[in-house]
DNA sequence: TAGCTTCTCGTACTAAGTACGACGACCCGA
DNA sequence: TCGGGTCGTCGTACTTAGTACGAGAAGCTA
């Protein structure tokens, strides 16, 4: 029986906190965090605005929730494995995930209460370093550093004015022209000579920096052990 | 003559784009970025909402503007000086500035068009590295890295759930109790043994990591020269 | 089947961004 | 001095967004 006068395509399997939050992620991915409104969210779910309030207390809770979902997508390192391999894997994964959900980076700043996925994540990284016999002190240093680098890199990538498919050159050329006024000479030089070269990919910088950090940490680690 | 029926204290010197933007910074500093509304802004200026629209096209322009003002507060390195000294000075300055205006970090992600202060800043850093005879390639690596680290660190600091005066311990204790459930054992261990020690200051981690990066860059630089 | 719980949503209020155009203040040349 | 601009300020009002409140449908249990 179950008469359903449903105008949205397909069925409407019943709401749940999970479904609400994942839908919110999808909306933010598609149109940016500003496009995520209670109304747009409910529409993407095929329901009405007030329905989502049965599952979340308010919009802030949604924001906290989706940040934690994103963190949950990052691969955890496995304590006990080779620490460089594990740490690099999780750093690469973090960057990939944050590039897929760039809005999450900006949210991290304002949301100060970490969710379970976030905590689990921290725990795994610490465990991996400690298992590799990093001292507590070195673990703290290393962790702060790796996270700073990773998030900061993602932040910069998110700030770049172009999307995946475009190359740097396509977008930068017209911008460069605007200030060929002679201000910023070094910036312009670097841009034309280096960043705008055919094969340049800013993303590659990530690996370079990560290697540098890992090398340096390895040195410190063996020095202490 | 100039009859003024002014109800706000003091005078009202006349608006200007500058005054509007600095007032916006002040409002955001005081109450967070969410508290910055056209209405709160105009009130802090002693005027009415629509008055600010004579100086800015819309709110987004305000956001772009204040991010650039914040960037303008960061000390520029001086090309020609000792590169380590200069780069460290600007990194320290950047962190200080971003700690004073934590809302700016989250905004960086969404605002993709850099303002003049931001561009001037980039130019100065590149100039400093190049003057120290870093190759273009190494300059690109170093810059991406230093910025990632600096912004990422600021991002993490901003995410910490306490303000300047409190110590980590004050705020962390009650949180820790919530999950003494045995999940996150390594995290809890690190927290109690290390982060919650009396003198611990997360900010000190910045120096440690920065030194590590600078050392490593110095090695790479001399290897190439 | 009565009554209770679970879930959905209609209505409506508040806050915020901002379009439009009125209006006073000042400014200039005649 | 006066008449017509231009500049700066703001009143009004419309739109979009978050969400309080409570009605009522849907399903569950005894």
TrEMBL record, chains A, B:
Keywords: DNA-binding, Repressor, Transcription, Transcription regulation. Gene3D superfamilies: Homeodomain-like (1.10.10.60), Tetracycline Repressor, domain 2 (1.10.357.10). It holds the Pfam family TetR_C_1. Residues 14-74 form the HTH tetR-type domain. It comes from Kribbella pratensis. The keyword DNA-binding applies. The keyword DNA-binding applies. This is TetR family transcriptional regulator. It comes from the Bacteria. Residues 37-56 bind DNA. SUPFAM superfamilies: Homeodomain-like (SSF46689), Tetracyclin repressor-like, C-terminal domain (SSF48498).
């Amino acid at each position: 029986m179950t008469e359903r006068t449903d105008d949205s395509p397909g069925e409407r399997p019943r709401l749940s906190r999970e479904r609400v939050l994942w839908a919110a992620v999808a909306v933010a991915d598609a149109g940016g965090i500003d496009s995520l409104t209670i109304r747009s969210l409910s529409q993407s779910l095929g329901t009405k605005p007030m329905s989502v309030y049965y599952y979340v207390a308010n919009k802030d809770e949604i924001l906290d929730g989706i940040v934690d979902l994103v963190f949950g997508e990052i691969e955890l390192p496995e304590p006990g494995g080779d620490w460089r391999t594990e740490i690099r894997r999780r750093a690469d994964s973090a960057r990939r995930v944050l590039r897929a959900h760039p809005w999450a980076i900006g949210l991290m700043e304002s949301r100060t209460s970490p969710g379970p996925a976030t905590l689990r994540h921290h725990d795994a990284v610490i465990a991996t370093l400690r298992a590799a016999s990093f001292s507590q002190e070195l673990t703290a240093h290393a962790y702060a550093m790796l996270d700073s680098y990773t998030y900061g890199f993602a932040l910069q990538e998110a700030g770049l004015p172009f999307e995946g498919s475009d190359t740097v050159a396509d977008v930068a050329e017209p911008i460069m022209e605007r200030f060929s006024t002679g201000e910023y000479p070094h910036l312009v030089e670097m841009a034309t000579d280096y960043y705008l070269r055919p094969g340049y990919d800013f993303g590659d910088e990530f690996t370079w920096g990560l290697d540098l950090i890992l090398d340096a940490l390895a040195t410190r680690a063996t020095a202490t052990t």
